[in-house]
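User: Please fill in residues for this 142-position structure.
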C-alpha cells in the first residue's frame, strides 16, 4: 500500500490574491508568511518584475491538516462549469431541518464576502447549497 501524499488544490483565476483571501474567509485558512528574505508580501511583490507581480498567491490551513490552496493568474476567463469543485463540509452529521439551518447560516455568512447562492437542494433529510466564489467557480456548502 502506498503512502498518503499531501496535495494542493490549484485555481486558475484573474486575481490570485483577492481569490485567496476570499477562500481564507470561507475556510478559516491563513495567508502564509512571505518568502524567505522578505518582511512582507508587499516587499516580495516589489522585488518581482512587473509582469510577474500578482501572478500567484496561496493560503494554508493553520492546523496543517487541509491542503494548501494555490491561485495562479491566467489570461482567459472562466468559460464553463468546473469539472472539480470544493465541498465545504458544514453539516456533517446533521440531518433534516437542523442540517438545512446550518447550511443556510453559512450561506448567509458567505454572501457578504461576495459568494453567490445558486440554489438550495433539500429533500427533507439531506441538503446541499451550490454557490459560486467571487470569480464564478462553483462550490457547495454541504
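Assistant: Residues filled in for all 142 positions:
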Amino acid at each position: 500500500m502506498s503512502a498518503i501524499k499531501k496535495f494542493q488544490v490549484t485555481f486558475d483565476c484573474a486575481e490570485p490574491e483577492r481569490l485567496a483571501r476570499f477562500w481564507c474567509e470561507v475556510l478559516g485558512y491563513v495567508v502564509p508568511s512571505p518568502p524567505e528574505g522578505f518582511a512582507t508580501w508587499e516587499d516580495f511583490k516589489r522585488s518581482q518584475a512587473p509582469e510577474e507581480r500578482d501572478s500567484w498567491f496561496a493560503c494554508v490551513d493553520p492546523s496543517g491538516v487541509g491542503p494548501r490552496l494555490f491561485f495562479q493568474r491566467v489570461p482567459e476567463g472562466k468559460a464553463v462549469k468546473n469539472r472539480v469543485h470544493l465541498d465545504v463540509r458544514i453539516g456533517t452529521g446533521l440531518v433534516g431541518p437542523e442540517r438545512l439551518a446550518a447550511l443556510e447560516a453559512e450561506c448567509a455568512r458567505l454572501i457578504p464576502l461576495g459568494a453567490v447562492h445558486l440554489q438550495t437542494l433539500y429533500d427533507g433529510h439531506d441538503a446541499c447549497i451550490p454557490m459560486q466564489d467571487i470569480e464564478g467557480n462553483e462550490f457547495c456548502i454541504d
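For context: The mean pLDDT is 94.
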